[in-house]
């Protein structure tokens, strides 16, 4: 997306659906995977998700639902 | 005296209830500066200054003072306050009408000092009574309630015209014109909740609750008070504005009470009255804090106090005192918070709660409650359970703990009213559009707020799919040929949803549209046959790998017509090996020759659901359809593999046995028969030389001698039944070892082992089910020809 | 008609299926999902709870026939 275009959070979030993202939780753990869906509560579903703690992949998930209240940020990977 | 709803006919007990609150009311009031009450003028039609002068709670000797006295008297708690209360009351009353006072007081209170409280308490109760009164307005209200009101109005009337302080004292909508009371105040309406009623004339009761009374009062002089049954009078006692006309009361003393037993208010106490207002003011805080404490000790204090106050007359026995005190304590504990909410508040809360629980679809949203209702039908349901509304209201009332104790009449009315209210709320809630996210966009961004069912969202995110959908460019034509597990689960949930929709429709309508349900099955969406890669298998077939699909199969098939069922069965026959129970259900694919536990579990589920559904479905099929199904099965699947699975074998058995039954009916044409025999030959050929493989290699695993292995023998019996002699020979040849194996196992079971004897019998029964077809019978030692 | 997917769908799809739930307080629960709501309150049957202690070695395990999990402690949910 063009950086100069005015982007609000919901637009950003709906634009990155389908792409590979990093979701950082408030407890410091990162999840990377394909963003399948996201809703207004920041609930997120990733597929092919990897759980990374301290830079190491700790676990693989096929699909994973992350409850929105735990999400610190979501960024495009 | 009784301006505040003091009802001489009422039993004394009820009176005690609100003593505390009355007291608080009074005190609160005292503490506030009326000069600042901007609405005073508006409310009472007098300047605040005037009003002030008129208020002499304790000492006032005028007629007006007498009337206003009761509330003033209220402040004291049972122990300390009672003295002063009584005094002020008495003093006010004494000059006016001593006799009357005696009657009144004697009647009302067994324990003397509680009287003032009682009168004050009226008020509090009255608030609660408002509800009842409102109910009375209701056309449906019960007659007794209406009767009650008449006396009230009647009593009140004389007071309609008194000086401003009367209007001021009017209890019912107190919050409206009173300065914001402290929380505990009984009548405490939320400050600012209602604007002060615009009133030009002081005596006029405030708008709102009191209205009913006003409209009703038809003075029925003396009779009313005395005639009323106790119950009613009790209700009345609680009524908000019940005002008792002194003269009326005095002229018609309550009949029930024997005055001689009760103390008469002494004039002595009157002296204390002067101090009361000030004291109250000072002590307000303190007393409030002490209330609890005092209550606890009331019991102890009562006796001495009583004797102090009314030495000569007092004749209460200790038991009576104790009982009264205990009751009083209990009541005051209960009443501590009574009146915090007025009926309107309660209405509001009730409606709000109801709006959250009301649902259009009780079956889906409250499934277990529905089930519970079916399992435990209410036998005491007097009310016809006509509508859902009704039942919701009923349930609510049953659960709401609405207090019925002692005041049946009132409670009944209240219940009725509640029920109507609930019904109304339900109706309104149903009419209201579905709960959605409420959102308001403003300068600071989007604000949204949630409800119980839909929590607050932080952002509204529109997915691309939804956008596309909105833009109308849904790509339906693009054939999906591969399904992820998620797709399948999605479809499955869709089926369940549709099924539930259809089921709930059937409860309401007779004519139901099942086309959406059929579409959701996606039977025709993507053709596939055995051996296709799993993601490309027809979604319906894939759904059959999930337990939840199996669970709904029987319910599902109820809504499918014969053609649809035939279509599904055909699809299944061509995809047998795509079913997990077949694909993974053969011992032959496992090194240890055992089917893994999770598959075995699924197999069990199939036996419970799928096999039964199929059995029923096959009953409807015609002969050539059965042949067609078998042909498809043979064409698309490796029959010998299928036969090594329990489900595969039982499907074969089902089809074969149905065909045999139809043949047995003897109405089959020669062409059909020849078609059948060629079909059978084909089947047999694919099985030949592998028949023994249908026996699981670990019979002791699957067959403890109970009937778990009988599906194999059933199949053999059916197969032999349809075959010619040559077929039967081949079969016997191939399973000879199994036959003798079973006989050996049967023989191994010690006849003395009674606990396991049934196993021996089962083994032989299974075996004989097959052997009988060929005219043989076996025991554990030998096979004989059937005697017959 | 169900084109619009939302995250909670993943949970819905796994009704009657086994899921793994990661909870606050270093806990996990595996169980068959019997029900859930929008707060991620969940009911699991045949559940097994794993409590991890600081030393990652010892894991406490609890089995429960049926358990209600309050949504606010849920971190993530994943099908097994």
From TrEMBL, chain A:
<dbReference type="GO" id="GO:0005682">
    <property type="term" value="C:U5 snRNP"/>
</dbReference>
<keyword id="KW-0963">Cytoplasm</keyword>
<keyword id="KW-0508">mRNA splicing</keyword>
<keyword id="KW-0819">tRNA processing</keyword>
<protein>
    <submittedName>
        <fullName>U6 snRNA-associated Sm-like protein LSm6</fullName>
    </submittedName>
</protein>
<comment type="similarity">
    <text>Belongs to the snRNP Sm proteins family. SmF/LSm6 subfamily.</text>
</comment>
<dbReference type="GO" id="GO:0030490">
    <property type="term" value="P:maturation of SSU-rRNA"/>
</dbReference>
<keyword id="KW-0539">Nucleus</keyword>
<dbReference type="Pfam" id="PF01423">
    <property type="entry name" value="LSM"/>
</dbReference>
<keyword id="KW-0698">rRNA processing</keyword>
<dbReference type="InterPro" id="IPR016487">
    <property type="entry name" value="Lsm6/sSmF"/>
</dbReference>
<dbReference type="InterPro" id="IPR001163">
    <property type="entry name" value="Sm_dom_euk/arc"/>
</dbReference>
<dbReference type="InterPro" id="IPR047575">
    <property type="entry name" value="Sm"/>
</dbReference>
<feature type="domain" description="Sm">
    <location>
        <begin position="8"/>
        <end position="77"/>
    </location>
</feature>
<dbReference type="GO" id="GO:0008266">
    <property type="term" value="F:poly(U) RNA binding"/>
</dbReference>
Automatic annotation (TrEMBL), chain B:
<dbReference type="GO" id="GO:0001731">
    <property type="term" value="P:formation of translation preinitiation complex"/>
</dbReference>
<dbReference type="InterPro" id="IPR019167">
    <property type="entry name" value="PAT1_dom"/>
</dbReference>
<feature type="region of interest" description="Disordered">
    <location>
        <begin position="138"/>
        <end position="162"/>
    </location>
</feature>
<feature type="compositionally biased region" description="Basic and acidic residues">
    <location>
        <begin position="320"/>
        <end position="330"/>
    </location>
</feature>
<feature type="domain" description="mRNA decay factor PAT1">
    <location>
        <begin position="514"/>
        <end position="776"/>
    </location>
</feature>
<feature type="compositionally biased region" description="Low complexity">
    <location>
        <begin position="143"/>
        <end position="159"/>
    </location>
</feature>
<comment type="similarity">
    <text>Belongs to the PAT1 family.</text>
</comment>
<feature type="compositionally biased region" description="Polar residues">
    <location>
        <begin position="223"/>
        <end position="236"/>
    </location>
</feature>
<dbReference type="GO" id="GO:0005634">
    <property type="term" value="C:nucleus"/>
</dbReference>
<keyword id="KW-0963">Cytoplasm</keyword>
<keyword id="KW-0539">Nucleus</keyword>
<dbReference type="InterPro" id="IPR039900">
    <property type="entry name" value="Pat1-like"/>
</dbReference>
<dbReference type="GO" id="GO:0003729">
    <property type="term" value="F:mRNA binding"/>
</dbReference>
<feature type="compositionally biased region" description="Pro residues">
    <location>
        <begin position="193"/>
        <end position="209"/>
    </location>
</feature>
<dbReference type="Pfam" id="PF09770">
    <property type="entry name" value="PAT1"/>
</dbReference>
UniProtKB/TrEMBL annotation, chain C:
<keyword id="KW-0507">mRNA processing</keyword>
<feature type="domain" description="Sm">
    <location>
        <begin position="6"/>
        <end position="80"/>
    </location>
</feature>
<dbReference type="InterPro" id="IPR034105">
    <property type="entry name" value="Lsm3"/>
</dbReference>
<dbReference type="GO" id="GO:0030620">
    <property type="term" value="F:U2 snRNA binding"/>
</dbReference>
<comment type="subunit">
    <text>LSm subunits form a heteromer with a doughnut shape.</text>
</comment>
<dbReference type="InterPro" id="IPR010920">
    <property type="entry name" value="LSM_dom_sf"/>
</dbReference>
<dbReference type="GO" id="GO:0005682">
    <property type="term" value="C:U5 snRNP"/>
</dbReference>
<dbReference type="GO" id="GO:0003682">
    <property type="term" value="F:chromatin binding"/>
</dbReference>
<dbReference type="GO" id="GO:0140445">
    <property type="term" value="C:chromosome, telomeric repeat region"/>
</dbReference>
<dbReference type="GO" id="GO:0005681">
    <property type="term" value="C:spliceosomal complex"/>
</dbReference>
<dbReference type="InterPro" id="IPR047575">
    <property type="entry name" value="Sm"/>
</dbReference>
<dbReference type="GO" id="GO:0046540">
    <property type="term" value="C:U4/U6 x U5 tri-snRNP complex"/>
</dbReference>
<dbReference type="GO" id="GO:0005688">
    <property type="term" value="C:U6 snRNP"/>
</dbReference>
<keyword id="KW-0687">Ribonucleoprotein</keyword>
<dbReference type="InterPro" id="IPR040002">
    <property type="entry name" value="Sm-like_LSM3"/>
</dbReference>
């Amino acid at each position: 997306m063009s950086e100069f275009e005015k982007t609000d959070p919901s637009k950003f979030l709906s634009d990155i659906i389908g792409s590979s993202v990093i979701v950082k939780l408030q407890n410091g753990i990162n999840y990377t995977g394909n963003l399948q869906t996201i809703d207004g509560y920041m609930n997120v579903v990733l597929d092919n998700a990897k759980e990374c703690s301290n830079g190491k992949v700790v676990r693989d998930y096929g699909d994973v639902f992350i409850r929105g209240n735990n999400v610190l940020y979501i960024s495009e990977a | 005296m009784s301006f505040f709803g003091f009802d001489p006919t009422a039993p004394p007990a009820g009176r005690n209830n609100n003593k505390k609150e009355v007291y608080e009311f009074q005190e609160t009031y005292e503490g506030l500066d009326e000069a600042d009450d901007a609405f005073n003028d508006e409310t009472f039609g007098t300047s605040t200054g005037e009003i002030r002068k008129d208020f002499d709670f304790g000492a006032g000797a005028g007629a007006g003072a007498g009337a206003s006295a009761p509330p003033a008297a209220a402040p004291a708690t049972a122990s300390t306050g009672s003295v002063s209360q009584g005094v002020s009351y008495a003093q006010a009353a004494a000059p006016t009408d001593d006799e009357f006072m005696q009657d009144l007081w004697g009647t009302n209170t067994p324990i003397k000092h509680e009287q003032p409280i009682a009168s004050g308490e009226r008020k509090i109760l009255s608030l609660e009574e408002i509800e009842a009164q409102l109910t009375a307005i209701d056309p449906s209200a019960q007659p007794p309630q209406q009767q009650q009101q008449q006396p009230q109005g009647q009593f009140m009337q004389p007071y309609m015209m008194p000086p401003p302080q009367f209007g001021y004292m009017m209890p019912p909508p107190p919050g409206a014109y009173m300065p914001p009371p402290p929380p505990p105040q009984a009548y405490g309406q939320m400050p600012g909740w209602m604007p002060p009623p615009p009133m030009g004339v002081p005596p006029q009761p405030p708008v709102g609750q009191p209205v009913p009374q006003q409209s009703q009062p038809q003075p029925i002089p003396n009779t009313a008070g005395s005639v009323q049954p106790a119950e009613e009078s009790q209700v009345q006692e609680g009524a908000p504005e019940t005002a008792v006309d002194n003269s009326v009361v005095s002229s018609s003393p309550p009949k029930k009470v024997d005055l001689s037993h009760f103390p008469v208010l002494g004039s002595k106490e009157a002296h204390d009255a002067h101090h009361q207002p000030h004291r109250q003011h000072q002590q307000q805080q303190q007393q409030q804090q002490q209330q609890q404490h005092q209550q606890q000790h009331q019991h102890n204090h009562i006796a001495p106090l009583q004797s102090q106050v009314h030495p000569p007359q007092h004749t209460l026995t200790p038991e009576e005192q104790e009982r009264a005190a205990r009751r009083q304590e209990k009541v005051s504990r209960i009443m501590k918070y009574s009146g915090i909410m007025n009926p309107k508040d309660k209405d509001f809360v009730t409606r709000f709660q109801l709006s959250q629980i009301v649902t259009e679809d009780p079956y889906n949203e409250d499934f277990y409650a529905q089930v519970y209702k079916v399992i435990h039908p209410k036998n005491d349901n007097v009310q016809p359970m006509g509508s859902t509304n009704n039942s919701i209201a009923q349930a609510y009332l049953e659960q709401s703990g609405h207090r019925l104790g002692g005041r049946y009449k009132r409670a009944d009315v209240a219940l009725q009213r509640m029920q109507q209210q609930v019904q109304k709320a339900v109706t309104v809630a149903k009419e209201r559009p579905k709960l959605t996210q409420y959102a308001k966009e403003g300068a600071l961004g989007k604000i949204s707020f949630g409800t119980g069912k839909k929590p607050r969202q932080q952002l509204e995110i529109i997915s691309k799919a939804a956008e596309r959908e909105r833009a109308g460019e849904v790509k339906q034509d693009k054939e999906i040929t591969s399904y992820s597990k998620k797709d399948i689960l999605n479809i499955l949930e869709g089926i369940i949803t549709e099924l539930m929709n259809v089921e709930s429709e059937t409860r309401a309508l007779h004519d139901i549209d099942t086309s959406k349900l059929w579409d959701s099955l996606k039977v025709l969406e993507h053709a596939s046959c055995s051996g296709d890669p799993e993601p490309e298998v027809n979604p319906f077939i894939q759904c059959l790998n999930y337990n939840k699909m199996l669970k709904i199969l029987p319910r599902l098939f109820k809504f499918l017509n014969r053609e649809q069922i035939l279509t599904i069965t055909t699809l299944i026959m061509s995809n047998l090996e795509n079913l997990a129970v077949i694909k993974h259900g053969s011992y032959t694919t496992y090194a240890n020759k055992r089917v893994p536990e999770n598959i075995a579990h699924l197999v069990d589920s199939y036996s419970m659901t799928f096999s039964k559904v199929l059995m029923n479905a096959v009953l409807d099929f015609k002969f050539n359809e059965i042949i067609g199904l078998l042909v498809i099965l043979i064409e698309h699947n490796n029959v010998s593999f299928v036969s090594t699975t329990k489900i595969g074998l039982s499907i074969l058995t089902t089809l074969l046995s149905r065909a045999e039954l139809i043949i047995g009916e003897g109405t089959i044409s020669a062409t059909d028969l020849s078609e059948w025999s060629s079909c059978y030959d084909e089947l047999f050929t694919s099985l030949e030389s592998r028949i023994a493989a249908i026996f699981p290699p670990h019979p002791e695993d699957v067959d403890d001698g109970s009937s778990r292995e009988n599906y194999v023998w059933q199949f053999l019996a059916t197969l032999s039944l349809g075959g010619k002699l040559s077929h039967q020979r081949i079969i016997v040849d191939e399973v000879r070892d199994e036959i003798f194996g079973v006989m050996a196992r049967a023989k191994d079971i010690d006849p003395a082992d009674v606990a396991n004897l049934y196993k021996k019998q089962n083994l032989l029964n299974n075996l004989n089910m097959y052997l009988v077809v060929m005219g043989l019978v076996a025991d554990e030692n030998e096979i004989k020809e059937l005697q017959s | 008609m169900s084109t619009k997917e939302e995250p909670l769908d993943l949970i819905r799809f796994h009704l009657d299926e086994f899921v793994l739930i990661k909870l606050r307080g270093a806990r996990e629960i595996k169980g068959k999902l019997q029900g859930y709501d929008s707060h991620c309150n969940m009911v699991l049957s045949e559940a097994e709870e794993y409590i991890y202690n600081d030393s990652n070695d010892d894991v406490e395990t609890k089995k429960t026939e049926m358990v209600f999990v309050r949504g606010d402690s849920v971190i993530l949910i994943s099908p097994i």
